[in-house]
Amino acid sequence: MATKVFMEALSPTMEEGRLVKWLKNEGDKITSGDPLAEVETDKAIMELVARGDGVLRKRLINEGESRPVGQLVAVIAAPDENIDALVAEAGGGAPAPAAAGAKPPADVVAKSQESAGATSVPQRPSESQGEASAPPQQKTAGTPPARVESSQNVPAAMPASAGNGGNGGPVRSSPLARRMASERGLDLSHMQGSGPGGRIIKRDVESAAASPQRIAASAAPPRPAMAGDTEDVPLTQIRKTIAKRLAESIGPIPTFYLTAEFDLTRVSEMRAAMLELGDEYKVSVNDILMKAVATALAQHPEVNAHWLGDKIRYHRRVHLGMAVATPDGLIVPVIFDADQKRMSEISREARDLAKRARDRKLTPEQYTGSTFSISNLGMFGIDQFTAIINPPEVAILAIGTAQDVVVPDADGVAVRKRIRVTMSCDHRAVDGAVGAAFLQTLRRLIENPLMLVY
Amino acid sequence: MPVITYRDALNQALREEMQRDDRVFLMGEEVAVYQGAYKVSKGLLQEFGEMRVVDTPITELGFAGVGVGSAMVGLRPIIEFMTWNFAVLALDQVLNSAAKLLYMSGGQYNIPIVFRGPNGAALQLSAQHSQAFESWLGHIPGLKVVTPGTPYDAKGLLKSAIRDDNPVCFLEGEMLYNTKGEVPEEEYTIPIGKAELKREGEHCSIITNGKMVLVAMQVADQMAKDGIRVDVVDLRTVRPMDVEAIKASVEKTNRAVVLEEGWELCGIGAQVVDYIQRDCFDSLDAPVVRVHQADVPMPYAKNLERAAKPDAAKTIAAVRKVMYLD
Which of A175, A201, A203 lies at the smallest CB-CB distance from B281? Predict the structure, then answer.
């Protein structure tokens, strides 16, 4: 008995998921509960697990593609079971062709209707609607004729491996090259093969992927909103060696610490000025610090990253975790896209999250997916401290208490409000100079807080 | 860890297993008084007596048959062939009796027998005495075929072969007997059917067995100087074959060279390539290349023999080819 694998709602608000990575290959034995794939939801990367036993017979979507919740993405069945009908139902199983695979799901559905109609099995489309209960899909299924007539669907259905080269002949490529191109959304027909007879081989795909004018697969479909939020950079040899050696030296996360003292004079002036405008403009030092950190992170993706063992994932979006002490212990709710938010929004959200944390009312979506965290013990009068990194993040910022310090001044000495921060950095991913550069940017922002509203 | 020869490793395995189980006995040409044509059975006659270390006439079919019969009634014979080339005379007992009796008796007769002896080419032994038999024997359901390439593997696998309740063909090498390697003093066995990654690399897999393992290691050393790191997968057992090990390596390197001592057609490499195309198709960046003996009876002339045998230079050329380096 075959088990259909659907895109599941892995968070309460998830409407579609992007398949980040298949964890099983076609042909792998599957036991119920095995993780099949990593799926990026609207909030975090979650595992899609098997709901039945057997062999992963068919993967119906490529890595990097998105599907609405409820859509069939794979089939688990006995090794010899006939799954043709299931695959046909899902739209002919379009994973191999890069172009077709990159089409938005709606078109795939339309195409399945087209082919179903051609083989005169009228009940097929309604069956596939029934299987996938996601509203967007049903909507599309209601307007099939327009889709079918659209001529641009036809070339999209052609497999990339059979695409045309410059001279109109077939593109020769190694199986590995085809797989890699498909995974990276590259079109083989635009590549030069360096193998015998112009065969496109691994190194050709790698150099095409690395070249700045990456040629995307044809048809240029609208990319899902989440694509490109991260960039996976395979580890270089030197990075691997650094990671291994330092980890051996210090433990699972080879941490080092950078401490800096920032002048808060202008932050205090700004707060005072805002407060004069009215209570609704009241922001805390911590709110300003968070805005500054988020702004600095947007400029330093090298510390806004996740260590994933064989690669480092740099995040282009800033999801700022803030450590909150609760009676139950520490929890780190997240301010998503903190760099895009105004100080007032950060302030409101931070207060709300902290309250929810203390009331134990946080949902999992509210405390997963952070890309960088801060921990503030200033209110406890701590001068400075070191925080423990929240894996897989690669750094965390520990903030001490703001206090009056006597500092040298042009006129002798002056008393200034200052604050000490210590950044803990995972040395596997972040080198000292990289961490220091981030703190430099942060200092500039905190000591000139008007830049935060520029 | 003591460093001993392949010959002494086999000798230790025989001695230990004969001490361990008095149903185990050794029979073959020159195994007793002469202490073995290649001295593998040195000292065994003295320790175990002529009931358990038995010299035979030059009658391969006859003593192989005596072995199968004794196994049917509860003994655990080790039949030594002076070379596998001579075992051709005894193949009826190996293929038709030993390999099939369990099946044809409806499970009544296990045949716990080991047929062993040197396999493949040595130096200038000419066409009739230079043949590699692993593909012939590996073809037969009911047999296990083991081809150790190092002293460590030879000892651990021979002990497993002797303890196995089914017929095992154990293929040694005249050119291997004097090779040395570390063999621990303490008891160990190596499971039949498990390959070993003899060298860890990333650019190309060399899949091989038996004495070709030494050639593959030479290739690995030599190519490492140019920064090319190859995986050396030593199959160790030809039947059953460790498909998972092949798969793991090829999926990592995306390229494979299969190196074997015998001929091309219906060779071990043909089977390995089939597994690779079946299981690793989407991981391949280049067609798999095979290295094997030239498709001729082994020449006697030294220069021609060298030209016919698979060697390091031919293997390096193959690795360069699958890596698109030439």
Answer: A175
Tokens read off for A444? 């500039």
Residue A215 CB contacts under 8 Å (≥ 6 apart), including other chains: A186, A187, A190, A191, A208
Q: A223: distance to nearest CA of chain B, Å?
A: 26
- For an interface test with A, the pick among B229, B252, B255, B282 (most A C-beta atoms closer than 10 Å) comes out as B282
Partner residue facing B282 (CB), from A179, A194, A196: A179
Chain A residue with minimum CA distance to B322: A195
Contacts B283 to A, Cβ<8 Å: 175-176, 179
Mean predicted confidence (pLDDT) in A337-355: 91
Search chain B and give the residue with CA nearest A26: B279
Question: Regarding the domain delimited by B3-182, which CATH topology (the fold level of the hierarchy) does it fall under?
Answer: Rossmann fold (3.40.50)
The DSSP output letter for A239 is H
CA distance B322 to B206: 11
Among the partner-chain residues A175, A201, A202, the one whose CB lies closest to the CB of B282 is A175
Let me know the angle formed at the C-alpha of B226 by B224 and B230, rounded to the nearest 5 degrees: 40
Q: Residue A374 in contact with residue A322, Cβ under 8 Å?
A: yes
The reply to whether B196-322 shares the fold of B3-182 is yes
Contacts 24+ apart (CB under 8 A), A381-384: A383/A420, A384/A259, A384/A420, A384/A421, A384/A422
Per-residue pLDDT reduced to its tens digit, A50-67: 888 899 999 999 888 888
Domains of chain A: residue spans and CATH: 3-156 (2.40.50.100), 162-210 (4.10.320.10), 233-453 (3.30.559.10)
CB contact under 8 A, A27 and B279: yes
Substitution target in A161, A182, A201 with the highest count of B β-carbons within 10 Å is A201
**Distance between CA A191 and CA A209 in Å, rounded?**
10
- Residue that wins the pLDDT comparison between A68 and B157: B157
Query: Architecture of B196-322 per CATH?
Result: 3-Layer(aba) Sandwich (3.40)
Confidence of residue A151 (pLDDT cuts 50, 70, 90): very low
Q: What global pTM score does this model have?
A: 0.52
Interface membership of B285 toward A (CB under 8 Å)? yes
Nearest residue on chain A to B251, judged by CA atoms? Answer: A176
Token pair, residue A75, equals 């089939």
Residue with tokens 């006129």: A411
Q: Do A179 and B286 touch (CB under 8 A)?
A: no
Structural tokens at position B94: 């190996």
Q: Determine whether the interchain pair A174/B283 forms a contact, defined as Cβ–Cβ distance below 8 Å.
A: no
The tens digit of pLDDT for each residue in B206-261 reads 999 999 999 999 999 999 999 999 999 999 999 999 999 999 999 999 999 999 99
What residue spans define the domains of chain B?
A: 3-182, 196-322
Distance CA A322, CA A307 (A): 19
Give pLDDT tens digits for B260-275.
999 999 999 999 999 9
Q: What is the DSSP letter of B72?
A: H
**Inter-chain contact A201–B281, Cβ cutoff 8 Å?**
no
Amino acid letter, residue B266: C
A226: confidence class by pLDDT, cuts 50, 70, 90 = low
Range B189-221 burial, b when 16+ CB lie within 10 A, else e: bbebbebbebbebebbbbbbbbbbbbbbbebbe
For residue A427, indicate whether it is catalytic. Answer: yes
Q: Mean pLDDT, to the nearest integer, of A290-294?
A: 95
Of B279, B282, B324, the CB nearest to A201: B324
Give the pLDDT confidence of B126-139 residue by residue, as tens digits: 999 999 999 999 99
